[in-house]
Write a structure and sequence with these properties.
286 residues, alpha+beta, Arc Repressor Mutant, subunit A, Multidrug-efflux Transporter 1 Regulator Bmrr, Chain A, 2 domains, eight-stranded antiparallel beta sheet, 41% helix
Length: 286
């Protein structure tokens, strides 16, 4: 089964069990993927976390039920996974802009999030520049932080992590230590879900040959065959768009599969908002 079919199977599972207390682990199993890799691919392709998708779909169904039935708000709150009517009303207002009672009276507009169907673009309307590189294992040095993949917490925490590193000068230190083949500071995602479900380490590091400087940690990137993609344009949109293109176009048509070891994002010390900014994405493939 290809990853597109696996992803659709997981979405179908979510839809079939929307009113049950399912977890991200339950969903990822349907795609034969770790929580980390499933959440990562899902969010890249849909721009939302699994938890947010479930919330939006449940509140869409709740709004439909409110408009066509006389069901009590307290009963709908419990049905759609909320402990109290107040929590349900707050979430309902956040999505739809009105309370359940106002919706029943026809006040305001409702936001409907429809069931996802994965469609892959195989035409490659925009060319992708990449190269295949084989490398032995190499060392990176830097700092790391653990994040949860639940409810997209990693997507909120990682940008803040980068802000801290930029503000306290750690990025400047890493640029100075960079003496390996990959030129730039790296963002490295480490999947920990095998031993710690739903957890990941994120490193901000640089390839460095030699002793590990005080205050920094080291990580050994395993020997791999890499697909190295060029990224052109300002952050963060150019990086995000390239990731989406990789998973929606390149992987389905290339014959390669993700090797399951860490991905690398490579950032230079150029102006991050420049339209001419050059960056890279390194993906281990097999």
């Amino acid at each position: 089964m290809g990853w597109v079919e696996s992803l659709q199977k997981a979405i179908n599972y979510m839809e079939e069990h929307l009113l049950e207390d399912i977890t991200i682990e339950d969903v990822a199993k349907q795609a034969n993927a770790s929580v980390f890799h499933f959440q990562r691919i899902f969010s890249i392709l849909t721009d939302v976390s699994v938890g947010e998708y479930l919330r939006r779909r449940r509140l869409t169904l709740a709004a439909e039920e409110i408009s066509r039935t006389d069901a009590k708000v307290i009963d709908l709150a419990y049905k759609y996974g909320y402990d109290t009517p107040e929590a349900f009303t707050k979430a309902f207002r956040r999505q739809h802009g009105v309370t359940p009672s106002e919706s029943r009276k026809g006040i305001g507009k409702l936001q409907s999030y429809n069931r996802l169907m994965i469609q892959v673009n195989l035409k490659g309307a925009e060319p992708m520049n990449y190269r295949i590189v084989e490398r032995d294992a190499f060392q990176v040095v830097g700092i790391k932080r653990e994040f949860s993949c639940e409810n997209g917490e990693n997507h909120v925490g990682i940008p803040k992590f980068w802000d801290e590193v930029n503000e306290n000068g750690t990025d400047d230190t890493l640029f100075q230590l960079n003496n390996g083949q990959i030129k730039g500071v790296l963002g490295v995602c480490i999947d920990k879900s095998k031993d710690q479900p739903g957890k990941m380490d994120y490193w901000i590091a640089a390839e460095h040959k030699g002793e590990v400087p005080d205050g920094l940690l080291k990580y050994d990137i395993p020997a791999s065959k890499w697909a190295v993609f060029e990224v052109h344009g300002p952050m963060p949109h150019s990086m995000q768009n390239t990731w989406k293109q990789i998973f929606s176009e390149w992987f389905p048509s290339s014959g390669y599969k993700h090797a399951g070891t860490p991905d690398l994002e490579v950032y230079t010390d150029e102006d991050p908002f420049s339209p001419d900014l050059y960056s890279e994405i390194w993906i281990p493939v097999k």
